Every structure is written in C-alpha cells, then in structure tokens.
Amino acid sequence: MKINVQATNFNVDQKLVDFTQRKIDKLYQFYDKILSVDVVFKVENTSDRVNKFAEIKIGIVGENVIVKKISKSFEESIDLSVKAAERMLIRHKELLRS
Q1: 68 vs 11, 21, 41, CA distance in Å?
Q2: How many angstroms separate the CA atoms of 88 and 73, rounded?
Q3: What 3-state class would DSSP assign to 29?
Q4: Distance between CA 97 and CA 77 in Å, rounded?
C-alpha cells in the first residue's frame, strides 16, 4: 500500500519514509481492510526538545482512525502512533465481530 507522507517546516528524508513504511506495514497483521494511510510530520516551533509531531490517518471501511503523538524524534513519534493505532484497530475489529 502507498503511504502519503507530508512534512511541515522541514524536508523529510528517505530513511524516515522507509522507517514509516515498515512500521505501518505491520498494521496489516491486526486489520487487513486498510484503505489508505496518510502521515503528517511537523516540527513545532518551541524551545522544548519534545517538538517532533507525527499524525497518522488510517482510512478503514466505515471510518478513519486518527492518531497524533509528539516526542523527541520522529521515529519515536511513529512508534508511539503505530502502537496506539494497533490498539484502536484491534478494538474496532472486535466491535465488528460482536
């Protein structure tokens, strides 16, 4: 699946895109009906070191799952976002079963 990546206030490098692709590909283990994935990276203009923002929008049948996390690095933000998205997709799948 193609992941749409957008970056605000900086230029995204290919290593970050590849890392994001690998992490999001793992979400298919938990829910195989993912239609689209949009990732937005943003650097907040603050003096705090925790200023790397990642937002993942996962389009699934019937609704969208949106996860936003902020941390010291984009990789950490993606890790946290993917873990939260896993929990949300599992919960959504369980609701569909019942």
Answers
A1: 20, 17, 10
A2: 23
A3: helix
A4: 30
From CA 20, how far away is CA 54, in angstroms rounded?
A: 10
Please identify, in words, the CATH class of the domain defined by 3-97.
alpha beta
Q: Which of 86, 74, 81 is nearest to 19 (CA)?
A: 74
Rounded distance, CA 98 to CA 96, Å?
A: 6
State whether residue 26 is helix, strand or coil: helix
- Whole-prediction pTM: 0.88
pLDDT tens per residue across span 49-71 = 888 999 999 999 888 999 999 99
Q: Higher-confidence residue: 37 or 50?
A: 37
Region 30-48 average pLDDT:
88
pLDDT for 67 equals 96
Q: Are strands 3-8 and 34-43 parallel, antiparallel or unpaired?
A: parallel
Distance CA 81, CA 58 (A): 11
Instruction: Spell out the alpha helix ranges (H) of 1-98.
Output: 14-25, 74-97
